[in-house]
Amino acid sequence: MGVMYQAQEFAKQTGVTVRTLHHYDQLGLLKPSARSEAGYRLYGERDFARLEQIVALKFVGLSLREIRKLLSGKAVDLVTALRIQRNAIAAKRRRLDQALEAIESAEHMLARLNGGAPDWSAFAKIIEVINMQDTEWTKKYYSEEARAAIAERQVPQHVIEQGQRDWAELIPKVEDAVARGITPDSEEAQALAARWSELLRGFTGGNPEVQKGLNKFYADAANWPSTFKKPYSDAAGALMCEAMKIAKR
Asked: How many domains is the chain built from?
């Protein structure tokens, strides 16, 4: 039977919540492979693959009802299923490169095995990456007005990509400043904060309602999904907040 996981450990391994697992069980989407003598749900290796199917199909727009119908009564052909998911996700290639790489890696691994035992961690990785890329949950922090403003801006892809590169360059500099004990009122911190503010405006467009939603988003970091990691440390964020406050005086 292989290694079995209780719901809490399986949820931790895959980056979903225990509540989600219970919901999928109730819907008949993902029944646990077994139960312990005490009645606890137990999930096995093949449940990784089943959950990966659900997460991927949900991500490309299918409802849970449609997914249940699609998966109902069919043996899971992992190679074929991964190929179908890869083709569907390819339409969103520009923001899903990591998901594609993970799926292709698992697909190639299966093709090489010729019926051997798969490395199930590859499927856990797919779940992790897809959940990390799926940011629909962030919309709850923004008002209807803010979401409309974001949608209407239509920022060119090259501008988005440049912004990502700019943040990737700035954040390590701020983390280094924190490590060196730079104070918020120092010339270096003020220069970093000015750049930080500039990049924030690149996202908010200077819209205070969008900024308000962004503030709510970061204030609730403790409740983010486990697969969505904060791009910078709390110390770096605190340094920039204090430096920007000083700059406004």
From this structure: 2
25, 31 contact by CB (below 8 A): yes
Q: What is the DSSP string of 4-48?
A: -EEHHHHHHHHT--HHHHHHHHHHTSS--SEE-TT--EEE-HHHH
- CA-wise closest residue to 106 among 90, 83, 131: 83
Q: pLDDT tens, 164-181?
A: 889 989 999 999 999 999
DSSP bridge partners of 35? 41
What confidence tens digit (pLDDT) does each residue in 114-166 have? 666 677 777 777 776 666 555 667 778 888 777 767 766 666 667 777 888 89
* Beta strand residue intervals within 84-174, DSSP E: none
Cβ contact 77:43 at 8 Å: no
Look at residues 109, 134, 159 and tell me which one is the last residue of a structural domain: 134
pTM above 0.90, yes or no: no
The answer to whether the CB of 132 falls within 8 A of the CB of 124 is no
Query: In whole angstroms, what is the distance from residue 4 CA to residue 9 CA?
Result: 9
DSSP 8-state code for residue 92? G
Q: By residue range, what is the domain housing residue 83?
A: 5-134
